[in-house]
Amino acid sequence: EIAGISAIGNLSGQSLLPLISKFSDFSKWQHPGWVLSEYHGCNANTSTYMLRVGKWKYITYADGLSVPPQLFNLISDKDELHNVVLKFPDVQAHLDKLLLSIVDYPKVSTDVHLYNKRAFAEWRESLGQNYSQVIANLRWYVDWKKDVLANERAIDKWLNYSSG
Predict the structure, then answer these.
(1) How far is it, in rounded angstroms, from Cα 90 to Cα 10?
(2) Among 55, 91, 101, 164, fewest CB within 10 Å belongs to which?
(3) Using one digit for the tens of pLDDT, what is the confidence trace for 26-36?
(4) Domains, the chain, ranges and CATH?
(5) What is the β-pairing status of strands 48-53 and 56-61?
(6) What is the pTM of this model?
(7) Who wins on pLDDT, 29 or 160?
(8) In 86-105, which positions are buried (b, 16+ CB within 10 angstroms) versus exposed (e)?
(9) Are 51 and 35 in contact (CB under 8 A)?
(10) Cβ atoms of residues 153 and 79 within 8 Å
């Protein structure tokens, strides 16, 4: 928007330009009342989703089931040290429903996982005979070298696991 380029049709979001423009009329700014953040990384075990609404920060992972969600009251716990998800199941349910209305995070997580698997398989294939040498010298080399064969078997098992 700042560069004068039209937004791509499949992207969603809110313009932040009114927040940084000294000529803005903030009363016309349409904010949805929540902030969403997603994290997907090639070195992360799972996708992470954060939804901020008022004093609450809700964090959930992957399919929403395999890793317990977290809920923080940012007024009383600014450092996010006390997960209160079990104390406020109604808040957790409401925020999870809201999150699902914004993004189908279980599906997105599955798609990201499958993409990462395909990309890794293609990367490994592209290295050919150099694969073992290259992977043994990446940034996690200390842990990798503790049991190279077990690590290679774990990758083979992951790549051959059909459901994702």
Answers:
(1) 32
(2) 101
(3) 666 677 889 99
(4) 31-103 (3.30.1120.10), 107-160 (no CATH)
(5) antiparallel
(6) 0.78
(7) 160
(8) eeeeebbeebbebbeeeeeb
(9) yes
(10) no
